[in-house]
Structure prediction request, 471 residues.
Amino acid sequence: MSATPPGPPLWLLAELTYRCPLHCTFCYNPVEFASIEHELGTDDWLRVLREGRALGAVQCGFSGGEPMLRDDLEVLVAEARRLGYYTNLLTSGVGLNEKRIAALKDAGLDHIQLSFQDSSKELNDFLSSTRTFDLKQRVATLIKQHGYPMVLNVVIHRLNIDHIDRIIAMAVDLGAEYLELANSQYYSWAQLNREHLIPSREQLARAETVTNHWREKVGDAIRILYVVPDYYEQRPKKCMNGWGNVFLTVTPDGTALPCHTARMLPGMAFPNVRDMDLASIWNVSEGFNRFRGDAWMKEPCRSCPEKEQDLGGCRCQAWMLAGDAAAADPVCAKSPQHDVVERIVAQAQVPFDARPPAQPLVFRTAKASRELGTAVPPAA
Amino acid sequence: MSTTPEVHATPRLARHFRLQWEEVQQRHVLLYPEGMVTLNASAAEILKRCDGTRDVPAIVAELEEAFDRRPLDTDVRAFLDIARRQGWIAA
Prediction:
């Protein structure tokens, strides 16, 4: 338990569905998504939105999967906007046609984040295992025509990082206000494909130089966010800005999580919005209090002078790489398991020719999901 | 982006920014795609008047009148400069 009561959950992420027409190799939805059924209905979501707003949530993200697959999206956006949320739609663009984009505008949608997988049709369509590149271009134009601010989100990894110059040029051409170039972090499907996705140090350095060059060139016209993989840091990130501190995710079946990948953690009882109101979930549930504050920490975190800066890093990474969700995030150079990360990073410096990946790329499909079942900590 | 205010500038909130009172936080906030800026009371009073119809002297005069404090010109201009640099307001 934390000593002081938690502040409000400023961010409510509504993951409306795990269904998605795309099959991205780095998807952060749970590997076992196909076995998670019973999506919340419209009335449940409306109640979640009202309870979240009463708790003080102010940013609301509609995400998935592909949220456009929900035909009640317009109803949910309208209620969220009426309640005073700043409403964000996070979409692949599939299903966002002229009629629905206008209806969403009428409902009061504030902003659209559109994902691309690459600046080239070939790689975009390969990585998502769909023919969606041309559609995404058309959707980007529609978003601007309808006067929305547009964030382009491109997950960066070994296979597209060398295209970063063209990716930024594309975002500028499409008129995006923000561009998120976030390197894939290795959770869920991206963890399965880590060998394929982790860039080399040289690739990262080049990408950063190119990004900085563009920042100087375009100034404030487009704000570019560039995030390197945790594995290349010497200290872990303050994951989710602290467990149960700012973020509240409600997943398609109603399970509430302090972060969208926390479902993987073993032995955790995460509450469901069907059984508990959001205030109880946020303030008193066991799942949301498990890693609040620092009383749960072990050494070396417990006596670390930097513990308040990163709160021990990411609990999922600790579980995946150290086999203990309460351990220090092995990304930290002070972690006894840091050698695990060092070995992975060392391997990433070797070109594919000299180390063919042990398994082919796994695409996020229902079939693969059922075959792979529930996630277990991979042999690091 | 220039940080020198135009003589006849009538500042207004930048597109896609929304200013609102948050009951739970007991303060005004500025919202934008996936982000939030928390505002102190004086910042909020200035931004409330940045609606594209008032020029800077008018904003200053209104604030001096409303809060019975003067001169506020230097403080208001300094804040507007920051707000412009942050991209919160246009003009």
The two ends of chain B are 11 Å apart (CA to CA). The mean pLDDT of chain B is 91. Residues 73-86 of chain B form the longest helix (14 residues).
